[in-house]
Amino acid sequence: IAVLQELRAALERKEFRLLFQPVFSRDLRLVALEALVRWEHPLRGLLPPSEFISICEESGLIVELGRRVLHEAAHHYAFLVPQGLGHVRLSVNVSAMQFAHGLLDDVRRVVEEFDLPFGALELELTESVIVDDPERAAQVMVALAELGVTIASAIADFGVGYSSLRYLKRLPIHRLKIDRSFVNDLESDESDRSICEAVIALARTLRLGVVAEGVESIFQRDWLRTSGAGELQGYLFAKPVSFAAATSAEPEPS
Ligand code: G
Ligand code: G
């Protein structure tokens, strides 16, 4: 409860800030920046989401925090254009509760306020968003797509069930994310390689993009590229950093 009060105060005092982690195309050009929230705690320093997101979700505070994150991320689009990076997407994580509480209005507002072109904003959704209330999720997602907002989701979140795959086909999802838990042991774990191949094949069939997360080694990079993952993100290329650092990030030449 004390933490909750502290979090409310932190929102008031604007202690949350965003870092951005670059995402690169297979030929190592910058294609997206994923916004990742941090709490700049006055005493404890920069805190990662694991320290506060679940409390925000349980308390409903995530709706307001998520709204701030969305606004702050969208605000950065204007700074991409003069750097010749107008094609780079801003990618924002959205929790299920935020999705269910006014997300569409919030998105509409930032798209208007910052005059975001089609494809400039991407939302990363988790499965619970869809599974909790598929019909409503579908309506919101279609409306988001009409606003020019793309949607990414991790395939693992869907499980491999038949119904999940049906959602995938029916819903306007633009990109599948390969979770870093499948990328971690690519070199040693044959079943992880099979899972990655399956996700890539599925994406190809459904004409979706693929972004692999958590790329830390040259082996992982080269294997994923060769296997057809279109976009790569991970510490091998860049960590979450300030916006200025993220837009000037150069992955090491291959
Ligand atoms: O930044 P870091 O890699 O520590 O993030 C860990 C997790 O926290 C991410 O995988 C993501 O799920 C979650 N997260 C980060 N930023 C946000 C945010 O702005 N909103 C929501 N809902 N989750 C976030
Ligand atoms: O699920 P989501 O995309 O929100 O995950 C973002 C989180 O993953 C952030 O906490 C970020 O720091 C972390 N992350 C990003 N790239 C890597 C990586 O290459 N290795 C590890 N271990 N974590 C990563």
UniProtKB/TrEMBL annotation:
One of the entry's Gene Ontology molecular-function terms is: cyclic-guanylate-specific phosphodiesterase activity
| PROSITE patterns xref list | EAL (PS50883)
Q: Which Pfam families match?
A: EAL
- Which residue range or ranges hold the EAL domain? 1-254
Alphabetized Gene3D superfamilies for the sequence: EAL domain
- Matches recorded under InterPro entries: Cyclic-di-GMP_PDE-like (IPR050706), EAL_dom (IPR001633), EAL_sf (IPR035919)
Q: Per its UniProt record, what CDD domains does this chain match?
A: EAL
Question: SUPFAM superfamilies per the record?
Answer: EAL domain-like
| Coiled-coil spans in chain | none
The name this protein carries in UniProt is EAL domain-containing protein
The organism named in the record is Cognatilysobacter lacus
